[in-house]
Design goal:
Blueprint lengths: L2 E7 L3 H15 L4 E4 L4 H7 L5 H9 L2 E6 L11 H8 L4 E8 L2 E8 L9 E3 L4 E3 L5 H17 L3 E5 L6 H16 L3 E5 H10 L6 E4 L1 H15 L6 E5 L4 E5 L16 H13 L3 H16 L13 H12 L5
Parallel strand pairs: 1-2, 1-3, 3-12, 5-10, 8-9, 8-10
Antiparallel strand pairs: 4-5, 4-11, 6-7, 11-12
Length: about 325
């Protein structure tokens, strides 16, 4: 029986993840779910946002379903998400973008770049080191090329014309693509952000370093209807975590207004990662039929609440979970 660690986190994570669990139970009643408490709310209450016990629990799970966490601009607060990615070595962040004319996947290196955690903060100067390594670039390039072989082609997004660290990333990605026999092209990241909006059909798998991938996927969310629609997977050699791309949005928390589709789609990705592509496809189909029937949350121009949207998706799946 697959065991799923459930970390709702902060803000709307506590709204959208329970809906996702209900949907997953609808298609896979055999799954075992157990809670993991972490995030800014816990830090305010206990002084610790996450402890080794939570890291250990996530490592012991078959997969992690993650909501969202608030990260305040406080130098004493260490990012929970960055720590989890490092501790579980979740080096590949996979962000599918489907909607309208778009059917593409952004593959983002997940452990280096400006999120490497190498920082110094002083009274007059603050420094964040952008770390790009050959090892990190090689393994994300191999992951992206593996996807591109199953799909169509690869785009390498970088800024090697200005940033010297990107020359290494570019060189490694090109070398791996050539060795794998994957058709590829390269594009400067600033131009790529615009072009993917103007010509989404021209893109398939896009590989970038950490920060660029974070920004590009948020930009590309426009093609799918907004951040409330985009799922993601954080994949490593032995562990995997799935989460909606959106943040914790604390002002919307507890109001039954958050769009749960991104979280539910993340749950579908989780099932696909566990090898159950049939159930994952069932969930995606149910979402599409629900939207086509006009059931939408406010961010999509509808009136459905978080719970009601979940109810409609479950109804589309054919049976209810109480």
């Amino acid at each position: 029986m697959p065991r799923i660690a459930v970390a709702e986190g902060d803000g709307i994570g506590k709204d959208v993840i329970p809906v996702t669990v209900r949907v997953l139970k609808t298609v896979r009643p055999d799954l075992e779910f157990f809670p993991v408490e972490l995030g800014y709310g816990r830090w305010e209450r206990t002084g610790e946002a996450i402890t080794p016990a939570e890291i250990r629990a996530m490592k012991e799970a078959d997969a992690v379903l993650f909501g969202a966490v608030t990260t305040p601009p406080n130098p004493e607060y260490r990012s929970v998400v960055v720590r989890i990615r490092k501790e579980l070595d979740l080096y590949a962040n996979v962000r599918p973008v489907r909607g309208g004319e778009a059917d593409l996947v952004i593959v983002r290196e997940n452990t280096e770049g400006l999120y490497s955690g190498i920082e110094e903060v002083g009274p007059d100067r603050a420094t964040t080191l952008r770390l790009i390594t050959r090892r990190g670039s090689e393994r994300i390039a191999r992951f992206a090329c593996g996807l591109a072989k199953e799909r169509r082609h690869l785009t390498i997004g970088h800024k090697a014309n200005v940033l010297k660290a990107d020359t290494l990333f570019r060189e490694v990605c090109i070398g791996v693509a050539e060795e794998a026999g994957v058709a590829f092209r390269e594009k400067f990241i600033d131009a790529l952000c615009l072009d993917v909006l103007q010509h989404p059909r021209e893109y398939d798998v896009i590989v970038t370093e950490n920060m660029f991938g974070d920004i590009l996927s948020d930009v590309a969310a426009y093609l799918a209807g907004g951040l409330g629609m985009l799922p993601s997977g954080n994949i490593g050699e032995t562990h995997a975590l799935f989460e909606p791309v959106h943040g914790s949005a604390p002002k919307h928390a507890g109001r039954n207004t958050a769009n749960p589709v991104a979280a539910v789609r993340s749950g579908a990705m989780l099932l696909g990662h566990l090898g159950d592509r049939v159930s994952a496809a069932r969930i995606e189909d149910a979402i599409e039929r629900t939207l086509a029937a006009g059931v939408k949350t406010r961010d999509l121009g509808g009136t459905a609440g978080t719970v009601e949207m979940g109810d409609a998706i479950i109804a589309a799946l054919g049976r209810e979970i109480t």
